[in-house]
Amino acid sequence: EVQLVESGGGVVQPGGSLRLSCAASGFTFDDYAMHWVRQAPGKGLEWVSLISGDGGSTYYADSVKGRFTISRDNSKNSLYLQMNSLRTEDTALYYCAKDRVGATTAGFDYWGQGTLVTVSS
Amino acid sequence: DIQMTQSPSSLSASVGDRVTITCQASQDISNYLNWYQQKPGKAPKLLIYDASNLETGVPSRFSGSGSGTDFTFTISSLQPEDIATYYCQQYDNLPPLFGPGTKVDIK
Lengths: 121, 107
What we know:
The complex is a heterodimer of chains A (121) and B (107). Chain A is mostly beta strands and 121 residues long. Chain A has strands spanning 3-7, 10-12, 18-25, 34-39, 45-51, 58-60, 68-73, 78-83, 92-99, 108-111, 115-119. In chain A, the strands form two sheets. In chain A, strands 2, 4, 5, 6, 9, 10 and 11 form a seven-stranded mixed sheet that branches. Chain A starts with a strand and ends with a strand. In chain B, a hairpin with a 6-residue loop joins strand 4 and strand 5. Chain B has strands at residues 4-7, 10-13, 19-25, 33-38, 45-49, 53-54, 62-67, 70-75, 84-90, 102-106. By secondary structure, chain B is mainly beta. In chain B, the strands form two sheets. Chain B has a six-stranded mixed sheet with strand order 2-10-9-4-5-6, with no helix packed on it. A four-stranded antiparallel sheet of chain B has the order 1-3-8-7, with no helix packed on it.
C-alpha cells in the first residue's frame, strides 16, 4: 500500500524558513518523480514543485522560484521542501504527491494528508 | 503557461441526477488531462487520467471525455458520497496547472 506522510509544518514569521519532509512507502521510490502541491485555506490546488526520480531535475512554480528548494534522499525514501523567505501568501496545506507514471509529470495518483504551514507575524 | 477554466464553479443537483462539468484549456493539450475529487478535509483523489481513463477502484458512474482544448467530466447518477470539489489538471506542459474547481452539492 502506497503511503505518503508529510511533516515539518508549523507557524513561522514572514521572512522565516521551514523544511517539510515526506516519508514514502509501498512503492519503488526512485522510479517516480515526486511533487509538492499546496492549498491555501478555502482555495484551490496549486502545484509548487517537482523532482525527477533520480533527483537530477527540478522544477518550480514561478511563485516560489528562488525561495523554495525541492530535494530527495532515495536511500531514505524521503522527499523534502526547504522553504526560505516565507511570505504570508505561502500559508497553505502542503501535500506531497507521487507522480502517476514516473516521468516528469503525468499527474498525481497518491497524495499525503498534508502538513499545514502558517506564515504570520 | 497553459490556463485551465472550469464551469460551473458550483452546482446543486438531486441524488440520481446526471452531473456534467466542463474544463477548457487555453491551448491544445491533446488528452493530457486528469480529474480529481476532493472531499472536505481530505486530500485530492485521482478519478480520471488521460482525459477518459478511469483510475482503478473508481466507480463506473464517473467518466471523462474530450481532447484538444475541451473536456467533460460526468457523474451519471449523483450519489450522496459524491459531494466534493472536482478539479481538472493538465500535464501537457509544466507547470501542471489545475482548474479552479467545481463544488458539487446535493439539492
